[in-house]
Every structure is written in C-alpha cells, then in structure tokens.
Design brief:
Blueprint lengths: L20 H9 L6 E5 L3 E7 L8 E6 L2 E6 L8 E5 L4 E11 L2 E8 L12
Antiparallel strand pairs: 1-2, 2-7, 3-4, 4-5, 6-7
Length: 122
C-alpha cells in the first residue's frame, strides 16, 4: 500500500508557506481558539484577534505578498506571533489595523482581480 503526505487545510486562512512550518503547526494546534475571528466582504477580509494586556506600541503587523504577519515586540507583557496566508492578493495600501479594548481588528484590503486577456500569436 502506498501512502503520500497530504497537506490538510481546514481553513482558507491557515498558513501554507513552507517557511511558516512551525506557525502552521501552531495554527493547526490552536484551531478553534476562541480569540480569533474572520469575516469577508467584497472589498476586504476582517480578522479579529483577542490580545488582552498588549499595548498598541508593542504590536507589529506586516504584509508580504498575500501573507499577513502579526507579532508582539520582545518587551510586550504577552507574546504573540502568527502568520496567515490569505487566498487572494492583498492590497497593502487598503489594509488597516485598530486596537480597542484588547481586540486587534485587521481590515485587509483585497487587491483587484487581474483580468484575463487574450494574447495574439503572430
């Protein structure tokens, strides 16, 4: 009998980039974690993360390609580090973050879908 490794991906937002292996493992371990929520509309993904006790100045949010990374600085009271790979292209200019009452809300803008065009063969 032949067995092949398979990548199980229950969530469209679970990290799958090979460099994020440990973070993917932690994401699979923490699946169903109460402090995480995600919604989607036609212009953005809205991600909410519970981060009680963390000050605004201790949080770093960065976008690389279609991966968004959220982490706290070393001197933060609580440590948090995660990366999420989104199913579509991210518009970094339309992305914003807001921290209120211990809840970090990320509004991640979707980039315009590239249209398919026919190329003439000469």
């Amino acid at each position: 009998m032949f067995f092949a490794p398979a990548l199980r991906r229950d969530s469209a937002f679970a990290p799958i980039h090979p460099d994020l292996g440990f973070e993917r493992f932690m994401g699979d371990t923490m699946r169903g974690f109460v402090g995480f929520g995600i919604e989607e509309d036609d212009k953005a993904w809205i991600v909410t993360l519970d981060m009680p006790g963390v000050a605004k100045g201790h949080i770093s949010v960065s976008v690389t390609g279609n991966t968004i990374r959220v982490e706290t600085t070393g001197d933060a009271r609580r440590q948090y580090k995660a990366a999420y790979e989104l199913p579509g292209a991210v518009d970094a200019d339309a992305t914003e973050a807001h921290l209120e009452h211990g809840v970090l809300t990320l509004r991640i803008g979707k980039a315009e879908a590239r249209t398919r065009r026919q190329i003439a063969i000469s």
